[in-house]
Design brief:
By secondary structure, this protein is of the alpha+beta class. It contains 6 helices and 11 strands. A 5-stranded antiparallel sheet has the order 10-9-8-7-11, with no helix packed on it. A 4-stranded antiparallel sheet has the order 2-5-1-6, with helices on both faces. The protein starts with a helix and ends with a strand.
């Protein structure tokens, strides 16, 4: 493990996870209230003097490309909607404080006696917060469809399972969960234009192939 640390860009983060006080627990919240829960928890920890038991609250986010008014832009989205990560020492008082925070519906797992995340699980969920900058830039460039330099990545295969006029389901991004109809396919850039029904109007949205899937 230590030998591989030298070539691991996340080595320092892994060490921090191993040595930090407390354990990471996953808290379930109402979807869309993740940041509110983070703020509520922070305020309650301070007002109830629980800083010695609850150390860190995180809502992992990721950058996704959105199309607004025909403009493509990168926006931050909550990576795991409905979940908040809390590093804490579990006891009756700390459990009660978290559990009775507004918009929290409970701990994931056994709600009365929650099991903390294993270090590898905590690492996977928190990694986007600590990814080295170069990796973030490359990832952002890929998301924005930039070519050239390190962001060129792989050539996109041209075998496409979709056809124009096909109904699909959007799997990822800000329109995840909505059905749509494919209106254009761009094999060279690995993208499709999907018509999504928003506010009783058909709105074209450009997505990469792996953001869409079959409707059933």
């Amino acid at each position: 493990d230590i030998e591989s640390d030298e070539n691991d860009p996340n080595a320092e983060f892994r060490r921090t996870l191993r040595t930090a006080l407390g354990d990471w627990y996953v808290v379930h919240s109402y979807a869309g209230y993740e940041k509110k829960v983070k703020g509520n928890l922070h305020n309650r920890i301070v007002s109830l003097n629980m800083e010695d038991y609850i150390f860190q609250i995180e809502v992992p986010e990721e950058e996704v490309t959105e199309i607004k008014n025909g403009q493509r832009k990168l926006v931050s989205k909550v990576r795991i909607p409905g979940y908040v990560l809390v590093r804490m020492e579990m006891n009756e008082d700390s459990w009660t404080l978290v559990r009775h925070t507004p918009a929290v519906t409970g701990f994931v797992g056994n709600s009365q006696h929650p099991t903390p995340l294993r270090p590898a699980e905590a690492f996977d969920m928190l990694k986007p917060l600590f990814t080295p900058e170069e990796t973030e830039e490359v990832k952002s460039a890929k998301a924005a469809g930039v070519t050239g330099g390190k962001a060129k990545a792989r050539t996109i295969p041209v075998n496409i399972d979709f056809k124009i006029g096909e109904s699909i389901l959007i799997k990822d991004g800000s329109f995840a969960g909505l059905p749509g109809t494919i209106s254009e396919i761009k094999p060279e850039s690995g993208k499709v234009t999907v018509l999504v029904s928003l506010f009783e109007r058909e709105t074209p949205v450009e997505l990469v192939f792996d953001q869409v899937g079959p409707l059933n």
